[in-house]
Amino acid sequence: MRTPRCYHMSSLNENVAKRLCRRYSQKLIQHTTGQLLRAYPAATRIDSTNPSPLLFWVHGIQLVALNFQTDDLSMQLNRTMFEACGGSGYVLKPPVLWDRTCPHYHTFSPMEREVEGMSPTHFSITIISGQNVCPGSNGAGSSCVEVDVLGAPVDCVHFRTKPVHRNTLNPMWGERFPFHVQMEELAFLRFAVVENNSSQVTAQRIIPLRALRSGYRHVQLRNLQNDMLEVSSLFVFSQKTEDSASRNVVPASVFFLTEEQRAAVRYKVTVHGGPGPEPFTVLSVNQKTTVRQLLDMLLFQSGVCASDCVLVEEKEPICKERSDVRRQGLHRSLGPEEEVLQVLSGWSPDKGYVGRICFKTKEESWSNRGGEKEGEEERRERAEEEHIFVQVHEVSPGQPHCVIKTHRLSTAQEVIQQALKEARQSCGAPSSLRPSDYMLVEETLKETVHKKVSKLSERVLSEQECVYQAQSRWKGPRRFVLKRREPVQTARDDKWKGISFASELKKLTGRMKPQSRSSEECTPYRVLAWSSRDLALHMVF
């Protein structure tokens, strides 16, 4: 493969080129940095089909020969690749494939599934609707849309919408497809409208992923010869998000850039409460911008001394469910040498926090600290109100009852766990006690009519029943008792065994008074059958 002249070009069969890509991925990229390489279709393609050029492109191979007489997916990809330059000329490769100063030039391999230290770019495509997606038909076909991400092997993914029957004029899909991409510069997005019955592609469009703009867009469709269809389009919504850069993780958009190119990448930072009439100010920073530099940019034309001001980070927790205990917010003054992007990386919703940067004077910062102390007392009082005390009886032989402090939303199973834990700590109960062997019983003492004899009734609380709600309904003498499951069940069985069928029949017949009725007055019995419908739970991921 090594040739003495840079203008010499080596031609490889597609099978040989694929073997080199799989076995010597990094060496092939380094070879194509200074040598021209060409891949051509194998001789076994007697039907003039074309190999996919993507595998060769991501390894730096400059030329891929194709059979132009065949309008297939490979030919459509090739036309899309050079469409921005009018169908001719050259397209510059990403820096990681040719620039030796790139930090990952010697370690990058397109065949690896995961790249250490890089967070992929997250995309989502929503196929909303279409217009005349099957040109030439009478509008009675059943169409669906296939969405393919084409690029490096790790980025390839395939989606398909549900078919819309008997409507190709204005079908509505409304389906969302999320995916993530590592090499955005060599990734393509393909939309293909497929007739559901015959699996025939009626319209298609391939777009470079880096050229796809976020928001609502009409994608003009093309035929299989890549000619524009005037009235055929797809209405889509696209969204692109990136994880914030941190000390150990770099977004995919800047991972393959050189140090100079990384320094030129700008990020938007919003500072609230800055000088001026506006409630917030948006500033442009790079990856190495510190808090001191951000403060100088904010006060550049205001005339305020930077030594009298500070930037404060305000982080508020996110409660994903109503039952979650509200956590305390965090407010702190940022150090002058802290990197701004490092501060922003701690605000990810996945970590449970959202935040903002606020501009304050040092006097306001000190006064807010006093207010924070008062706020902490209020939060403590609020936290105390969210907890209740529950008294559980017959916990163990050495402990007739115990008082437990628990949350308002605690279930019966959680109260049982706390009661057994209290029994182990206070009276040395064995650690082999399992909460699943016990149940929480609500005992109610009811007085009879003569108020001489009291009747005791029991109700077993379900494992997920809220104890606070059960306790709030008490209007008389009641209590919670901890009992094992087997004795309670046995007592119930013994009680029902003592009741005979004859005694029950005697009670029922004794209450009825004999009445003589004619045959015309007798009403025939009717059997009412209760039916239940099956409930299907649909889960959306």
The major beta sheet can be summarized as: 5 strands, mixed
Structural category is: alpha+beta
Contiguous low-pLDDT stretches (5 residues minimum) are: 487-502, 511-541
Rg, rounded, reads 36 Å
What is the terminal separation in angstroms? Answer: 49 Å
Quickly count the helices.
13
How many strand elements? 23
Instruction: Tell the overall outline.
Output: extended
Describe it for me?
The chain is α+β, with helices and mostly antiparallel strands and 541 residues long. It has four domains: 83 residues, no CATH class; 124 residues, Immunoglobulin-like (Sandwich); 119 residues, Ubiquitin-like (UB roll), CATH 3.10.20.90; 108 residues, Ubiquitin-like (UB roll), CATH 3.10.20.90. The chain is 23% helix and 30% strand. The protein is built from 13 helices and 23 strands. The strands form six sheets. The protein has a five-stranded mixed beta sheet. It has a five-stranded mixed beta sheet with strand order 20-19-23-21-22. The protein has a four-stranded antiparallel beta sheet with strand order 8-5-12-11, with no helix packed on it. It is extended, with a radius of gyration of 36 Å.
